Structure formats: structure tokens, C-alpha cells
Amino acid sequence: MAAGAETLKRTPLYDRHVAAGARLVPFAGWEMPVQYAGIREEHIAVRRGVGMFDVSHMGEVETTGRDAEAFLQRVLSNDVSKIAEDGAQYSVLCRENGGVLDDLFTYRHGAGFLTVTNASNHERDLAWMRRQARGYDVKVHDRLDDFAMLAVQGPQARELVARLADSELPKRFRTARLQLAGVPGVLVCGTGYTGEDGVELLIAPDYAITVWDALLEAGATPAGLGARDTLRLEVCFHLYGNDLMEERGPIEAGLGWCCKEDTGFIGSETVRSVREAGPRETLVPFAMTGPGIARQGNPVAGGGEVTSGTMSPCLGIGIGMAYVPPEKAEPGTRIEIDVRGKPRQAEVREKPLYSKER
Amino acid sequence: VADASYPDDLKYHPEHDWARIDGDVATFGITWYAQDQLGEVVFVDPPEVGKTVAKDEPYAEIESVKAVSDVVAPLSGEIVEVNDALGDAPEQINEDPYGEGWLVKVRLGDASEVEELLDRQAYEDSLT
Fold first, then answer.
1. Cβ-based contacts of B64 with chain A (< 8 Å)
2. B26 closest CA partner among B82, B75, B85, B67
3. What is the pLDDT along chain B (128 residues), one digit of tens a residue?
4. Least enclosed by CB within 10 Å: which of A115, A125, A329, B122?
5. Sheet containing A51-54: which strands, arranged edge to edge?
6. Between B40, B68, B87, which is nearest A295 by CB?
7. Could A318 and B68 be called an inter-chain contact, meaning their C-beta atoms sit closer than 8 Å?
């Protein structure tokens, strides 16, 4: 274990995490904070106030060149031509057979595009994109080491960040380059992974500590990967490696909305035929109706499998997502999950599992 | 959450369990270190009264937000009482691991097993 630990990468904020009392764990080759004060407390801070997450482990790929848009249109599932200048768009990266290689946000900025990858997939995405780039006048740059990334999320997140910014924050799904806490050129993106309003910040690594300290001073609560996971699952956002994988396609994952087959992206033929014929299984949110908490890998009786499961801090019950056959996919359907040998009762629900309005 | 503590009157199992021995019955629970490692406990799946437990074998499951952990029996015997209050208040394991957070009471099958457990000093030494 000790030898392995030494090879883990650390973000520029590692010392800040230690100082804040974080529990650090290996995650996708990085030593990352899983929690500080406690998952529940951090989760509630994001739902009610402002939380900040160091997500510098996430990768960045920049695509430039004359054919940049045409190339991304070929590899990404969404209609890249629809990304406005300084806009953002979610899509999946598919194999020829429609299997999902990654899910990602792409930002258009001036000369090119910046795509944010999942840490565990970054190298594979980069290799895949470079392989597909043959014949296009594009350069695919690895920008992983050029950015630290912070997610500032919560109902008061924008207000807090705005106080540190020299000009107006971008709207939802837009980006802007601002001076933040005196740091020039911070790329501020109106995106997130918590179901709350907020921004994500791409910062030159040398300035990450300046921005972190200013946010902390302004009242943001440090939150770890544990809370990030419970927050995203309450609003049914996918986690690659849990709910998305090469062995399944975007239609069964419920991501048909970000697939535009007419663009002819790699995998679009399969996606089109699955969309027309209907998927063999489909990803649904569920809530436990009795005791127990279903976890990743638990089988659903009669077919299917849980891909994510946790205790919902806001709802106070076990929640999750599972792939189930179509006849079990309707909200309200009772399902039985084998939780380590014990049959546990759950019910298929609507997305999102948690919303403020309810 | 309580501060780190390891009472002198308990016996400890290296898998971070404690036993409070009272004649031929022992109360089991998990140590401060174990609950700290787990984080906030959100669910306890207790065993049933009458079931037998074997030393070093799992007998219950404790779930934190993030993960499930087996709880290992520090001693062998038959379960005579289960802390049902943990069903509604699993957080007692974090707040009071040696008091309200107890898990089961067990009628011991082999009192000589107690000799194999650690005292406070030996257990604390094992944590560093």
C-alpha cells in the first residue's frame, strides 16, 4: 500500500486539504479528499449555502485547428455546431458499437474547444481522440497539467463568487474569462454536478491556492468526493464507471437527449437502431421502501443490476440507479434488490430523486 | 462526535471491536477508531437473538454513507440481546461508541477466548 500511495498524484491544493482535516483516499490515480467534516454536513452545506470541491483530478483536452468543429462533431454525440461562442454542452464519447467511453462537457472558446474528461478516462479519451483525428486538420492537446479545477456549488454560490470577481459571472451553460480574487484569466463555467446553481473554475495551477483561500475566507465550505457523489445521485446525474460504461450505450443510460444521430458521430448507427428498437435494459432511479441500502453491483430480482446506491442525506432513505428490463422501468414499479443475500424492497421513481420544489 | 477514547475496562479485538465482559455475558461494539474510519453510520443490519457468533467471523453489517463494513465478533457465543435502538438512531455508534452505540450482548461459549483479546494499551499501540 505504501509503495502505491507514493505514485498517487496530488492536486495543487493537497496541503490545503490536509490543513482542513480531510480524509484523503486514492481515486483514479489521485490522492483526493473524500470528506472533511463529514459527508452529510458537506452535502447539506451545498444544498443550503455554498460548498467548494477540488476537482483538479478531472482532465482537459483542447482541440484546435481548422477542422476542430467538424472533428468534434464526429467524435462527440451531441450537435457541436450548436455550442455558442463561450457556450458549454454535455455529450458522450462513443465507440463504433455505441458503447460509452466517457461523458463530458465541452466549452467553445475563441480558437478552439476545451473538453473536460473524467480522471479515470482521460488517457483513454486522449488516445481515442488522437486516433480519430487522422484526416482532420486539428491538434488534440493534453491540457491536464495546465488547469486546477474547483466546483463552487449551492444556492449562494454565485453570489459568493461574484463578490470576488471583477465582472459579471457567466449564465448557466456559458463561460467567461474573469479576474477572480486578483487572479487573472480564470475560466468560469456555469456548470456543475450537484443539482444546485453554481460555477466551475478552471485556474492556472500556480493560482489555485489563492482562489481556494479567497473562497474559504468568503465562507465556502470545503466538500469532498463523498458529498459530490451523494449530491449527484440525488439528482440522478451519471457517474462514469458506475452508471456509464463501455458495455452499455447512451440510450439505455437515458442519455438519448444528448445524442444527435444526424450528425453522423462515431457510434450513431447503433444509437439510432437502439433508439428505434428500444433498449434491452434502461437506467432508472429508485428509492428503498424498506430497510437497507442497495449498492453498486447488487442484482435486481428478475433481471438488472444496481449501478449506484447510497443513503440520501436530504431524503433520509436509500436511493440509487439501476439498469432494469423495460417492463420494470415505469415509475412506481416495485422492485426487489438482492443486497448481499437479503431481499430488499425498492420502488422505481421519477428523475430527479430530490428536488427543492417537492 | 466524541473524542478519541479507549476505556480501560474493555477488551479489544484487532479488527477494531470491543467487548465488555460481565460474567458469562459480553457486550460487543466497535471502537472509536472504527467509527471514525467509517464516517457517519446510516444503517445497521443487526443479527437476530438466538443466533450464534464465532470469534473473528462477521456477525453484523454497518453502513456509512459511502460503504458497507462487516463487524467481526471479538468472542464466540449466542446472541441474547440486540440493540434495537440503532434501527432508528444508527448515529449512536458515532456519538457514543462504548455506550448507547453497543451492538449485541452475547452469552459466551468459551470464556478462555478472552485471553486472546487485547487490553487498552495493546490495542492503542496497534493503531500507531
1. 39
2. B75
3. 668 999 999 999 999 999 999 999 999 999 999 999 999 999 998 899 999 999 999 999 999 988 899 999 999 999 999 999 999 999 999 999 999 999 999 999 998 999 999 999 999 999 98
4. B122
5. A175-180, A183-189, A198-203, A148-153, A51-54, A221-222
6. B68
7. no
